[in-house]
Design a protein that fits this description.
The complex is a heterotrimer.
Chain A: H1 3-23, H2 30-44, H3 47-72, H4 80-97, H5 102-124, H6 129-149, H7 151-154, E1 160-161, E2 167-168, E3 171-172, H8 176-198, H9 201-211, H10 213-218, H11 223-249, E4 251-252, H12 259-272, H13 277-294, H14 300-315, H15 319-341
Antiparallel strand pairs in A: 1-4, 2-3
Chain B: E1 5-16, E2 19-30, E3 34-38, H1 45-52, E4 60-65, E5 68-69, H2 75-80, E6 83-85, H3 98-105, H4 114-119, H5 122-142, H6 158-171, E7 176-180, H7 188-203, E8 207-211, H8 215-221, E9 224-229, E10 232-237, H9 239-243, H10 246-255
Parallel strand pairs in B: 3-8, 3-9, 6-7, 7-8
Antiparallel strand pairs in B: 1-2, 1-4, 4-5, 9-10
Helix pairs in contact in B: 3-5, 3-6, 5-6
Chain C: H1 5-36, H2 43-59, H3 64-87, H4 95-117, E1 133-135, E2 138-140, H5 142-164, H6 166-176, H7 178-183, H8 188-214, H9 220-235, H10 240-260, H11 266-280
Antiparallel strand pairs in C: 1-2
Classes of the chains: A mainly alpha, B alpha/beta, C mainly alpha.
């Protein structure tokens, strides 16, 4: 199969379940999803499981933005950790160093993340392919270096402690469980918003840019503007996740927002299946959990991770979802052929 | 009384490195006309389309759409002036459904932004319903009304994909429709249906400028023909007049073996 | 505090030395990019492995030239293996897939490096002593001369390879037009593997010769690789001469910037230059205006 045929087949595979889903119960998928999220703590029981769930949720919010950017709009970002860091540091500085309201920190983080994305994205998104990848990488590296070097604001490698918790309606979210519910609510809301955007004029414009940039342009879509818009959206989501992270881990430090995290995020997006909302959650969960498990292997963890990465991309380039579906399809074909020849 | 001109090209020139693809091309299309751009391969026909729709930038000359300057405008701005086009190699959005492809054509007619989309405001939902209904009408018009609108665009046959692209172009309610080799790859039955469709489109008040190699189609439906050779206009007139023009014959004969 | 002439000269010396190393790494990127269109994120790991293997060779008692050659040979094999295992099976993949594959390869190789050599920085003896030569107030170490010298010789060898040998000309043909090259009988896939192997050779050599100055460590490849890439872009991706010019320029700018301005932001200089070039003139200083 040529690359073009494979893309068409993948696109059809993507569009077909989307078509079925649209008609079916997924009109209101957030109901069972919400119920599942609410019930999860009962299954998890210990606080370590909850902590992992919160991490998965935080990553999922970032990956959702990344999916919109890469899967739907067809762009790429290897510097997304920078936006997460911006949100985290905004929260840390405002509620930690300055002692102001934590929600102000969240709002500031989102605003700063969106603004930075707008300023950086306008010139960067004129690039394509590898050049865009490297441009976003460069931006991410510079942002990380600034985080480490701007001692006056960020206290550099010493980091900032975030002790003041977020509170909702007077209730302080200072336990793992309460923070879990906040993060779960945010993830759900983000997924609903993402789904709404995809199935709208704005979403169609974005996807058109991915499908055929020239056809989108002659159909009246200001392609550059839409690329920047989705980049800004992804930056805002990442910053929001960053704020949540700051309050969850209680400590913010430049090491958490470097190249390694940016790559991890892209892996989550690709592994889950870039062009799906559920894929963001699946990818975030899979990679976060694998990463945690790999810790047990200590020095082998990087080796295994690298090998897994290569293997996944060579054999399952369209992600776990589509890859699994493909394997199932192929097995079905083999079985049918066997039945024809044998029985 | 000056004719109502939908598009006018004045001394349009485009160079690619050392090659002059289009050389001081001038012609205009009157409202309600079906005009054809023909010429041997490499004559500059698709380049002319690309120049009109802002895919390439001009090196010299002017393009006016309904008296407004379209020269140097980016593609989406030209679309907003009322120019729609199809492509030689059918540029569909294979990652979207049939209906969604047409709805992208209506982009300039929608207003909903990110916020309205995110929150699914009532105004946005009303607009979506309106756009969706109109898109279905366009599908009906080009003969794809029986196709399941949620089908992926890539699952259509080639002929159907060509029609889908025309539906998308029509969805923008254009003043001028540029058709780039719409008959290429179609069977003779499909070609005949296409000819009918183009007449229908003209009947709706859309001016048509088309490029094609199918001489039967061109001669049958065009009011006027412009002949290009090596980027220059060598003849312009009614199909019959152009057919018997010795320069035109020479250009085509010179190309064929 | 304004710098003296000899201080400036000092920055220039280290800048050019570092720049030559960047140039070699940048050439590796250019080679692979020309042959395959891929940006090889694992290029930096070739450098790290070269340095580490040289350290092992020297520690095993091998004379320095042998240790260096053995290290370079070892890294070359790694490069060829990488192409065979990870790149060839994914030939038809999209840009993002290939990017992630090479990133995965770099993580994998880094993991191996840490496992075999541990996390600490390891020293390598200078090739011919550490007695500095003072020139106009700036001190030049013999290692500086070794680096620049070896890089020059390597450039010459590469040029000869490309101009005078069958293999070299075949590789160049493949880079310019793969299909045409295949039509005249050049096995394109073997050329791709050769380009990976050769680029690993360059990376490994760069690592071995810079190790005495910078020490060998499992994670030294990340920054070096990225800066090598920035050099390739600065000089014009796809142009070998551009890679060299870009490397020297980047090294010099970095050295001057760190010395004269803020040393903490030293790494940021390379990335800032990368961004500026990408945005202002993506084809780089000497790059051809590609389609």
């Amino acid at each position: 199969m040529t690359a073009r045929e494979r893309t068409t087949e993948a696109a059809r595979a993507q569009a077909r379940p989307a078509a079925r889903a649209a008609g079916a119960l997924t009109r209101h998928w957030w109901l069972p999803a919400g119920a599942g999220a609410a019930a999860l703590p009962l299954v998890l029981r210990d606080s370590y499981g909850l902590h992992l769930a919160v991490l998965v949720g935080i990553n999922a919010v970032v990956v959702l933005g990344l999916n919109l950017l890469m899967g739907y709009a067809g762009q790429v970002s290897l510097g997304q950790a920078a936006f997460v860091g911006i949100g985290a540091y905004a929260s840390a500085v405002i509620s930690g160093s300055l002692g102001l309201s934590p929600w102000l920190g969240v709002a500031a983080g989102i605003g700063l993340g969106a603004t930075t994305a707008a300023l950086v994205g306008a010139p960067l998104l004129k690039l394509r392919g590898h050049y865009l990848a490297m441009g976003t990488l460069g931006f991410g590296m510079i942002a990380n270096i600034v985080m480490a070097q701007w001692q006056g604001l960020t206290r550099g490698d010493r980091g900032i402690s975030v002790r003041a918790p977020l509170s909702v309606a007077g209730l302080a979210l200072d336990t793992e469980l309460r923070r879990y519910y906040l993060v779960a609510a945010v993830v759900l809301a983000a997924m609903v918003v993402a789904a709404n955007i995809i199935d709208s004029r704005v979403g169609r414009a974005m996807r058109a840019v991915h499908g055929s940039e020239v056809a989108a342009a002659v159909s009246g879509v200001d392609t550059q503007r839409y690329k920047v818009r989705v980049f800004v959206l992804s930056g805002a989501l990442a910053a929001l996740a960053g704020s949540l992270y700051a309050h969850h881990s209680g400590y913010v430090n430049p090491d958490s927002f470097g190249f390694h995290y940016s790559i991890l995020l892209v892996v989550m997006a690709v592994l889950g299946g870039m062009s799906s909302i559920g894929g963001a959650l699946v990818g975030a969960a899979a990679v976060t959990l694998i990463n945690e498990q790999l810790r047990w292997f200590q020095e082998f963890s990087t080796i295994i991770f690298g090998a897994l990465l290569m293997g996944m991309m060579v054999f399952l380039p369209s992600g776990i979802w589509a890859g699994a579906a493909g394997i199932v399809r192929r097995l079905g074909r083999l079985r049918r052929a066997g039945r024809r020849d044998g029985a | 009384m000056a004719p109502d001109v939908v598009i006018e090209l004045r001394e349009v020139t485009k160079r690619f490195g050392g090659l002059v693809a289009v050389n001081q091309l001038s012609f205009s299309v009157e409202r309600g006309q079906i005009k054809a751009l023909i010429g041997p391969n490499g004559a500059g026909k698709t380049t002319a389309f690309n120049l009109i729709t802002g895919v390439h930038s001009l090196d010299a000359g002017e393009i006016m759409v309904e008296g407004k300057r379209a020269t140097g405008l980016p593609s989406h701005a030209v679309a907003a002036l009322g120019v729609a086009r199809t492509f030689q190699n059918v540029e569909l959005f294979l990652n979207m459904s049939v209906l969604e492809n047409v709805m992208v054509g209506e982009h300039t007619w929608g207003r909903a932004g990110m916020l309205g989309a995110a929150l699914r405001l009532r105004a946005m939902r009303r607009e979506e319903a309106r756009l969706s209904a109109r898109a279905r009408e366009c599908l009906e018009l080009v003969g794809l009304g029986k196709i399941e609108p949620e089908r992926p665009a890539g699952s259509l046959s080639f002929g159907e994909q060509r029609l889908l692209e025309i539906a998308r172009a029509l969805a923008s309610e254009p003043k001028l429709l540029l058709l780039d080799e719409p008959a290429a790859g179609l069977s003779s039955a499909e070609g005949a249906r296409l000819a009918e469709l183009v007449q229908q489109i003209r009947g709706l008040g859309v001016t048509v400028l088309l490029v094609d190699h199918d001489m039967d189609l061109v001669m049958e439906i065009s009011d006027e023909v412009v002949v290009l050779d090596h980027g220059e206009k060598i003849a312009e007139g009614t199909p019959r007049a152009v057919q018997s023009d010795p320069r035109v014959i020479a250009a085509y004969l010179g190309e064929e073996v | 505090m304004s710098p003296t002439a000899s201080q400036l000269l000092q920055y220039l010396v280290s800048g050019l030395t570092l720049g030559s190393v960047y140039a070699m790494i940048a050439l590796g990127f250019t080679l692979i990019h020309n042959a395959t269109g891929i940006v090889n994120f694992a290029q930096g790991e070739f450098v790290a492995l070269g340095a580490l293997m040289a350290v092992s060779g020297a520690a095993a008692g091998l004379p320095m030239p042998v240790a260096v050659l053995a290290a370079v040979a070892g890294v070359t094999l790694v490069g060829a293996a990488l192409e065979r295992v990870a790149i060839r099976p994914a030939r038809e993949a999209t840009v993002i897939t290939l990017v992630i594959i090479t990133i995965g390869a770099s993580i994998f190789l880094r993991g191996i490096a840490m496992w075999v050599w541990g996390p600490d920085a390891l020293p390598l003896r200078h090739f011919s002593g550490e007695h500095p030569i003072v020139v106009a107030g700036a001190s030049v170490l013999p290692q500086h001369l070794w680096i620049v010298g070896i890089v020059l010789v390597t450039m010459l060898a590469l040029w000869l390879l490309g101009e005078r040998t069958q293999v070299g000309k075949a590789m160049r043909a493949c880079a310019v037009n793969r299909e045409a090259a295949q039509l005249v009988g050049i096995p394109a896939s073997r050329m791709v593997m050769l380009s990976f192997a050769l680029s690993a050779t360059l990376g490994g050599l760069a690592g071995a010769i810079v190790a005495p100055l910078a020490m060998a460590q499992y994670n030294m490849g990340i920054m070096l690789g990225l800066k090598g890439f920035a050099s390739a872009i600065l000089g014009g991706m796809g142009n070998p001469l551009g890679a060299v010019v870009g490397g020297l320029l980047l090294g010099t700018l970095e050295s001057l910037g760190a010395g004269l301005l803020w040393s903490g932001f030293k790494d940021a200089i390379a990335f800032a230059i990368l961004l500026i070039v990408l945005l202002a003139r993506p084809t780089g200083l000497l790059g051809r205006r590609s389609a």
